[in-house]
Write a sequence for this structure.
């Protein structure tokens, strides 16, 4: 009765229960108006993905009604939804990397022939509509992630979509690339294409969307005009508690006489690290601030020894460490890598085997026969200590949400005597609640007498946990600031290469000159 | 920390999971094939399929392939691939046959094993240190080592003609060993295992195993089974048993699976990936060398094309056993069962006089059907697991079987 006025797509009373009894959605509703940008936010596990899948036709709802342009529909396959005019762009863009942009954009087009000429004209019209330029003959494999995202958008438009569902479109994009996506969304919505925009980045949702729906535990807790929200209110709606207080607590500087746990001298690598030297004392959290492609992740890998081409000296607790991850682990170093699925977790191992992996000999009889009860006990301890939401230590990492999977990666290093922690984007793709937990964990590492090096794209986050910040640019440490004396603006200026800027005028804030990768 | 209960339950579910069709399907398939063949032979009035002689025969025939399958499975688990096993085995067979007369068996055998080990090391070093795809490298070494066999044999069949040499070779593989009082021995082992289980805290399983052991020992004087198997079968049992135990119960085994399932995560966890992967190749080379020696001892001759095509049978056995070609998944015992299936079919055709012409079609079909079942079952398992968990998950692509 209510939302049936001009809604392009409306979901009413949608419930989704899985055969085992998990209820992913309960009486959820959503109403997307034609030509609007609708934000969908919620913590990991709140039901956003299930809702998207219901809309895309990948899941059939167990109850409720889906209406498309006022008519009740039930899409049973993704193809049906796409034909009706709903295009869904998933987080990891499925494109054929060996084909050209043009071929990818028209991948779904029927007919037996490749018709380059007709397609080209159509492609040109599309680009004009979108206001974006890209070489149609470029091979997709050679494109940056942001460009691929655009190819996916073009692909969606080429099928004549009236509603484009975007799941975390900017999760792996650099600032400049984000702006391109925003521009395109704004432009197309002005032309009448509706967007359902799912993102963890609340600032994006606030600046881009017209309306916003907040999901928590499978139900819609709030819905309204975006203009009526600010970041604090949105966060509270998402998590149901006030988090920002803990998140914004700056760290006090550490006494300068603590023992040096890690010292790096003249470290260089062809991967993009140039003559870096620094020291980290016990209890310190060092933030590495830099733009995408500045060499910040490469620096961590060089320190850890996983970059075998790196040259230079790394001392842990005063003793030199041979350049291999094995030696690094033995010296008490731990790396939480950027891509947890590809680098951090073994997908076929349950949680307990993942957690025990780096420290297996210590949990084994005679250092060679693993004691499974001890391993399970450790996994249970990690689950309890870190608040990992999971069915139990037998769960596979693929069953966990991003934040919980990330906590499992942390769990690998908690109990093995690691003292130097290298964290590469520890909160990427993690919801607000888990993010606060992880930041708290970082502080705990330091408080326990450890040393932490943390890389993050979100400078605000660095300032929240770090005691000192090193600014990385083109593989060098170009500046050092005490965290309580600097600001996001200053770090951004430094990372962009604007020298010793004390004045936050100029290109401060978002969208400063972007350092190409 | 929650005490005993959930952990015990987890272990019990792990134990039960091992017998689920999704995990033990290959064993059920073997039982099914044997049952069908037994019924058919009984129906047609031929000598019973399950007669001790026939069973001993099948085990003997499949043992060499099964040993190769064990080591190939190790390589597959480590995330690599080895096509060169048959060529290496032939090379080692040719080596031992040409050296046994002048040097005596122990030295000739050591050299033959060393040759196998060297081939494996070459494979492993090229694959891991140069970084070429294992399929390509071992395709190359398969051809090149076959070339070495041709050079060594001069293109002709070589035989061991020296009577002493013949005798020592025959002693290596021909003949049977009889283990008396099998029930008593197995019962005693079960009793020990039961006590170990009890000590380690799983009461129910421990009591069951202990009781079963005691009953078996008590019945032994009445029933008095004895086990009479060919020597290669014993080699297989020992090799498969030890390899299984190492993979299942040691740090080395756990790390090998980790390396195969996600090499980067393993490396960043402080595991020396190259060492494990090269080690798997070296082991495979050594195993191939051993099988080559047994093969030579069996035939007392090798022709230059001997064992050609066997590498594919070995891979088929591993695939039947559910080993993933992408690494990180597999069990050597199931691969052995896979080899047994292949030879049971083979033997069944002979017993039923169906003619060898149909054999290729049937065996090929069985392999593809098995792979299809594993893939579909794996997919369903994945769907089930994802549904059981919270919905917001980046589903990691479970390795295709």
């Amino acid at each position: 009765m209510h939302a049936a006025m001009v809604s392009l797509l409306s979901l009413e009373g949608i419930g989704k229960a899985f055969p085992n009894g998990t209820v992913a959605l309960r009486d959820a509703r959503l109403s997307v108006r034609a030509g609007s940008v609708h934000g969908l936010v919620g913590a990991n596990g709140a039901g956003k993905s299930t809702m998207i899948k219901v809309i895309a036709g990948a899941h059939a709802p167990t109850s409720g009604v889906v209406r498309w342009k006022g008519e009740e529909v039930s899409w049973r396959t993704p193809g049906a939804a796409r034909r009706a005019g709903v295009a869904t762009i998933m987080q990891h863009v499925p494109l054929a990397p060996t084909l050209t942009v043009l071929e990818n954009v028209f991948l779904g087009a029927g007919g037996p022939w490749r018709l380059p000429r007709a397609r080209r004209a159509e492609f040109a019209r599309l680009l004009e509509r979108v206001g974006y330029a890209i070489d149609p003959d470029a091979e997709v494999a050679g494109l940056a992630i942001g460009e691929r995202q655009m190819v996916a958008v073009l692909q969606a438009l080429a099928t004549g979509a009236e509603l484009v569902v975007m799941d975390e479109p900017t999760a792996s994009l650099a600032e400049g690339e984000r702006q391109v996506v925003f521009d395109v969304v704004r432009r197309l919505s002005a032309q009448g294409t509706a967007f359902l925009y799912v993102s963890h980045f609340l600032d994006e949702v606030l600046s881009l969307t017209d309306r916003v729906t907040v999901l928590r535990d499978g139900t819609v807790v709030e819905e309204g005009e975006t203009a009526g929200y600010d970041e604090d209110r949105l966060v509270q709606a998402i998590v149901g508690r006030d988090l920002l207080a803990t998140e914004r607590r700056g760290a006090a500087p550490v006494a300068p006489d603590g023992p040096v746990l890690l010292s790096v001298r003249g470290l260089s690598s062809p991967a993009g690290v140039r003559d870096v030297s620094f020291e980290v004392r016990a209890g310190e959290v060092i933030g590495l601030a830099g733009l995408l492609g500045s060499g910040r992740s490469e620096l961590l890998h060089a320190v850890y020894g996983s970059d075998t081409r790196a040259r230079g000296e790394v001392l842990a607790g005063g003793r030199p460490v041979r350049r291999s991850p094995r030696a690094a682990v033995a010296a008490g170093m731990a790396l939480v890598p950027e891509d947890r699925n590809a680098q951090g977790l073994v997908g076929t191992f349950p949680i307990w085997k993942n957690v025990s992996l780096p420290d297996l000999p210590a949990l084994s009889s005679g250092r060679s026969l693993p004691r499974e009860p001890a391993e399970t006990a450790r996994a249970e301890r990690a689950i309890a200590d870190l608040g990992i939401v999971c069915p139990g230590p037998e769960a596979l990492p693929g069953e966990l949400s991003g934040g919980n999977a990330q906590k499992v990666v942390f769990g690998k290093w908690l109990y093995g005597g690691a003292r130097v922690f290298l964290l590469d984007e520890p909160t990427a793709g993690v919801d607000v609640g888990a993010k606060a937990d992880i930041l708290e964990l970082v502080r705990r590492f330091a408080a326990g007498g450890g040393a932490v090096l943390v890389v993050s794209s979100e400078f605000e986050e660095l300032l929240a946990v770090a005691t000192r910040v090193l600014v990385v640019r083109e593989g060098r440490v170009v500046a050092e600031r005490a965290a309580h004396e600097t600001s996001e603006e200053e770090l951004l200026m430094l990372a962009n290469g604007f020298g010793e800027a004390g004045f936050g005028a100029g290109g401060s804030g978002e969208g400063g000159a972007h350092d190409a990768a | 920390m929650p005490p005993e209960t959930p952990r015990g339950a987890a272990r019990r579910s792990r134990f039960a999971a091992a017998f689920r069709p999704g995990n033990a399907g290959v064993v059920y398939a073997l039982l099914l094939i044997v049952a069908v063949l037994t019924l058919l032979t009984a129906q047609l009035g031929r000598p019973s399929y399950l007669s001790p002689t026939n069973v001993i025969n099948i085990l003997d025939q499949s043992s060499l392939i099964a040993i190769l399958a064990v080591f190939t499975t190790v390589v597959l688990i480590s995330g690599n691939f080895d096509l060169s096993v048959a060529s290496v085995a032939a090379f080692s067979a040719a080596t031992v046959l040409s050296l046994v007369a002048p040097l005596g068996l122990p030295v000739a055998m050591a050299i033959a094993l060393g040759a196998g080990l060297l081939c494996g090391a070459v494979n492993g070093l090229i694959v891991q240190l140069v970084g070429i795809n294992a399929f390509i490298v071992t395709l190359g070494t398969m051809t090149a080592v076959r070339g070495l066999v041709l050079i060594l044999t001069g293109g002709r069949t070589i035989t061991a003609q020296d009577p002493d040499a013949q005798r020592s070779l025959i002693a290596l593989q021909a003949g049977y060993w009889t283990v008396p009082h099998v029930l008593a021995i197995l019962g005693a082992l079960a009793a020990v295992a039961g006590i170990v289980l009890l000590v380690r805290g799983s009461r129910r399983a421990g009591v069951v195993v202990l009781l079963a052991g005691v009953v078996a020992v008590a019945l032994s004087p009445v029933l008095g089974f004895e086990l009479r198997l060919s020597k290669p079968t014993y080699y297989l049992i020992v090799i498969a048993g030890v390899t299984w135990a190492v993979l299942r119960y040691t740090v080395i085994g756990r790390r090998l699976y980790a390396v195969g399932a996600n090499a980067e995560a393993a490396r960043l966890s402080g595991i020396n990936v190259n060492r494990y992967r090269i080690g798997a190749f070296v082991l495979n080379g050594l195993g191939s060398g051993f099988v080559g020696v047994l093969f030579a001892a069996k035939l007392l001759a090798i022709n230059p094309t001997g064992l050609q095509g066997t590498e594919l049978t070995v891979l088929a056995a591993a695939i039947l056993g559910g080993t993933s070609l992408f690494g990180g998944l597999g069990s050597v015992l199931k691969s052995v069962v896979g080899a047994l299936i292949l030879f049971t079919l083979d033997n069944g055709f002979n017993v039923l006089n169906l003619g060898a012409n149909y054999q290729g079609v049937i065996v090929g079909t069985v392999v593809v059907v098995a792979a299809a079942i594993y893939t579909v079952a794996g997919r369903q398992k994945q769907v089930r697991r994802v549904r059981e968990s919270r919905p917001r998950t980046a589903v990691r692509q479970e390795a295709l079987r």
User: Anything to note?
Assistant: Residues 348-416 of chain A form one domain.
